[in-house]
């Protein structure tokens, strides 16, 4: 049976083809003679590129239900919209289609991946190719986050990273054992020493020109029980995704390399498993960092900021003047922003409209959060320079950011993204599927491109 996609842009067209409910459900399959036609409603007034990705994802899911293997997309019927360029929309369609095609079936005994080939006018090949690069990079992050804890340990994760960048321009170095301490990753060693899976640090270096040294830092806690401050919730299965920030960084490095962005970029990824044992680090321990700063461990379940601080210091040591860290850091960011906006902090914060523009463009939605100097008092320690946990139950995401900020020198532009609330999709609709969202890959890549281009789109 022949199958095709037709785009509808106006109310008149909707009435002409007599499809009830097209406005409520913009993707409608209709059998006509010997054909299955998917009518897709895209109003001429559409102003959000995310809507194009959404309907492409919905189309992919509906097509799968019909067990079809090939689908012809008639882009010639896709008109220029009032607020969005046609080329931009067709690119977004490809991105949404391929992101919705993702399934994590690695450990399913009987499930099979359903591939659907789309055909179209070859003049759009370049748009599909770039969209596929983006989708593949996001799906690398999804794959990593979806791995179970017994399959993704610091040791196996380090091997995966090495394999992912084989035969690319990204050089991978893995630090372990004494090399961790020699390079100044003292907190990473302390946090990870309680596990049988010894801590590692992955250093990824991509040199492709660029006037400044830039760095990405990702939290790589492969499973977080809370350590000796054991988590009290009943279901902690999703703590396997506490390495979501590191997955975002790896996906972004894949995409930056694939797009050949002209940048000198270092990624620093501490890899640990935070579990209680006879050898675990303890509340009241004091850790001395590479810069001499001492931190009292007030809570072992605030381990992410401890290992990120190691990486931030290393990034500055190697000369990075633009540093972005990303982490599933605090549950309180979800209390502040809900489940579809990550929090973004910076010592050089941009305008709200700037972040809204990036959110709309990438589909990774963020909202600017404040660095509140007065909250430093909440991190005071009786026996060390600072404590890793606030004395107040309020503003936890902000105090975590203030902790990290205390490790940044004034001559570095620093961005911190707390993505604990978005590591899984808010709703499994459009191009989102069960499992990890892949958040951060597109966002980090866009932040890098804008910095390279002087903050221009």
Kindly describe this structure.
With 457 residues, the protein is an alpha/beta fold. It is built from 13 helices and 17 strands. The protein has helices at 11-16, 49-65, 86-100, 125-146, 154-164, 178-182, 186-192, 244-259, 303-317, 332-337, 352-362, 396-405, 441-452; strands at residues 2-8, 27-32, 35-41, 70-73, 117-119, 170-176, 200-207, 213-218, 220-224, 264-274, 286-288, 294-296, 322-327, 342-346, 366-368, 386-387, 413-418. The strands form 3 sheets. Strands 6, 7, 8, 9, 10, 13, 14, 15 and 17 form a 9-stranded mixed β-sheet that branches. Strand 2 and strand 3 (35-41) form a beta hairpin. The model has no long low-confidence stretch (mean pLDDT 95).
Could you name the key traits of this structure?
single chain; 457 residues; alpha/beta; nine-stranded mixed β-sheet; five-stranded mixed β-sheet
Order of helices and strands: EHEEHEHEHHEHHEEEHEEEHEHEHEEHEH
Query: How many runs of DSSP E, i.e. beta strands?
Result: 17
Q: For the CA atoms, what is the radius of gyration?
A: 23 Å
Helical residues, percent: 25-40%
- Choose one word for the global shape: elongated
Structural class based on helices, strands and sheet pairing: alpha/beta
Question: Residue-averaged pLDDT, rounded?
Answer: 95
Terminal Cα span: 43 Å
Ranges where pLDDT stays below 50 over 5 or more residues in a row are none
How many helix segments?
13
- Main beta sheet: 9 strands, mixed
Strand percentage, roughly? 15-25%
């Amino acid at each position: 049976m022949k199958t095709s996609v037709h785009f509808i842009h106006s109310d008149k067209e909707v009435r002409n083809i007599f499809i009830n409910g097209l406005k409520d459900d913009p993707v409608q399959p209709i059998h006509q003679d010997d054909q299955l036609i998917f009518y897709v409603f895209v109003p001429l007034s559409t102003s959000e590129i995310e809507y194009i990705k959404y309907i492409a994802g919905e189309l992919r899911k509906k097509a799968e239900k019909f067990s079809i293997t090939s689908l012809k997309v008639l882009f010639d019927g896709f008109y220029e919209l009032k607020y969005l360029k046609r080329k931009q929309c067709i690119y977004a369609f490809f991105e949404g289609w391929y992101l919705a095609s993702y399934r994590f079936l690695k450990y399913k005994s009987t499930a099979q991946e359903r591939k659907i080939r789309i055909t179209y006018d070859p003049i759009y090949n370049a748009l599909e190719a770039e969209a596929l690069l983006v989708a593949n990079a996001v799906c690398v992050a999804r794959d990593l986050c979806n791995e179970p804890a017994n399959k993704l340990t610091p040791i196996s994760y380090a091997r995966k990273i090495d394999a992912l960048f084989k035969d690319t321009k990204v050089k991978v170095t893995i630090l372990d054992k004494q090399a961790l301490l020699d390079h100044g990753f003292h907190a990473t060693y302390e946090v990870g020493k309680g596990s049988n899976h010894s801590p590692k640090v992955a250093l990824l270096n991509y040199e492709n020109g660029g006037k400044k040294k830039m760095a990405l830092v990702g939290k790589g806690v492969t499973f977080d029980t809370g350590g000796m401050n054991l988590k009290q919730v009943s279901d902690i299965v999703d703590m396997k995704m506490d390495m979501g920030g590191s997955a975002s960084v790896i996906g972004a490095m894949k995409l930056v390399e694939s797009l050949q962005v002209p940048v000198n970029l270092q990624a620093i990824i501490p890899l640990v498993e935070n579990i209680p044992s006879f050898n675990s680090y303890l509340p009241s321990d004091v850790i001395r960092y590479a810069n001499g700063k001492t931190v009292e461990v007030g809570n072992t379940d605030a381990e992410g900021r401890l290992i990120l601080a190691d990486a931030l210091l290393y990034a500055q040591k190697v000369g990075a003047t633009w540093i972005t860290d990303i982490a599933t850091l605090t549950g309180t960011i979800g209390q502040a922003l809900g489940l579809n906006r990550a929090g973004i902090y910076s010592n050089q914060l941009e305008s709200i409209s700037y972040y809204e523009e990036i959110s709309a463009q990438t589909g990774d939605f963020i909202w600017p959060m404040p660095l509140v100097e007065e909250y430093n008092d909440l991190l005071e320690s009786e026996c060390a320079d600072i404590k890793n946990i606030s004395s107040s139950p309020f503003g936890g995401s902000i105090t975590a950011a203030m902790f990290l900020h205390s490790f940044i020198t004034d001559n570095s532009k620093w961005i911190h993204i707390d993505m604990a609330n978005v590591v899984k999709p808010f709703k499994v609709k459009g191009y989102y599927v069960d499992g990890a969202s892949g958040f951060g890959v597109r966002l980090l890549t866009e932040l890098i491109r804008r910095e390279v281009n002087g903050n221009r789109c």
